[in-house]
Automatic annotation (TrEMBL):
Keywords: Membrane, Transmembrane, Transmembrane helix. Belongs to the band 7/mec-2 family. It holds the Pfam family Band_7. One of its GO terms (cellular component) is cytoplasmic side of plasma membrane. Gene3D superfamilies: Band 7 domain (3.30.479.30). This is Stomatin/erythrocyte integral membrane protein band 7. The keyword Transmembrane applies. Residues 58-217 form the Band domain. It comes from Isodiametra pulchra (Acoelomorph flatworm).
Length: 242
């Protein structure tokens, strides 16, 4: 039965500065709209007044406590921050928004077959728990934050375990999980994602028929077998060896 090993990761304290690219971009950009943009925004407000009941039904959005909404107005982030939880209003013609789930999510990585440093094939399963701590970065800095985190975790798992021997995988898993978490955080911090827990299953012993250390005997030539048979049988009339 496979054993499991869990390492809990601490979540950064409130108010800790997030290292995200999107915030730096927002600070350096001029957030004012041009004349055409203001005309479209004004026209949208006029349409809201003219079609008030319909516009109210379309424009009012409600998101729960565990979600945030990143709102764009004419392709630019509105108000420089996320909206929610609760009720907010978007202009039907100029505003769009993306929902971001702030709860802890899990990724069950598929079984990875890894060749260790001492040339042993092992199979390892892992589960990564993570949460979004910067919803704006998770939308602006990566196209699909969850899928990208999955691919990154699979690659990191293979890279870390591939440079260690089987004995190190079995005996020093605490250090291996710390290395994996550190490598993951270097990239996911820019995506607004923080790995909160990593569950690394006990590496299995070499798979049957897949052990790279097992020597493979070459096929002997037919002539060699024939010579051995001749020595074994001998010449006609000769007594076989005792």
């Amino acid at each position: 039965m496979a054993e499991s090993y869990q390492v809990n990761m601490e979540t950064p304290a409130d108010g800790e500065k997030a290292t995200t690219v999107v915030k730096d971009d927002l600070d350096n950009k001029d957030e004012s709209f041009g004349a055409c943009s203001w005309m479209l925004i004004g026209l949208s407000y006029v349409l809201v007044v003219l079609f008030f009941p319909i516009a109210l039904f379309v424009g009012v959005k409600i998101i729960p406590e565990y979600e945030r909404a990143v709102i764009y107005r004419l392709g630019r982030i509105r108000d420089g921050k996320a909206a929610g939880p609760g009720m907010f209003f978007i202009l039907p013609c100029t505003d769009t928004f993306f929902r971001v789930d702030m709860r802890t999510m899990s990724l069950d990585l598929p079984r990875q077959e890894i060749l260790s440093k001492d040339s042993v094939s092992v199979a390892v399963d892992a589960v990564v728990f993570f949460r979004v701590f910067d919803c704006m970065a998770s939308v602006n800095n990566v196209s699909n934050a969850v899928q990208s985190t999955r691919y990154l975790a699979e690659t990191t798992l293979r890279n870390i375990l591939g440079i260690h021997s089987l004995a190190e995988m079995l005996g020093d898993r605490d250090s291996l999980t710390r290395q994996m978490r550190s490598m993951l955080d270097e990239t996911t911090d820019e995506w607004g994602i923080r790995v909160s827990c990593l569950l690394l299953q006990h590496p299995r012993h070499p798979l049957p028929g897949r052990d790279a250390r097992r020597p493979r005997l070459p096929h002997a030539p037919d002539a060699l077998h024939a010579g051995r048979d001749d020595r074994r049988v001998g010449h006609p009339g000769e007594l076989p060896p005792v």
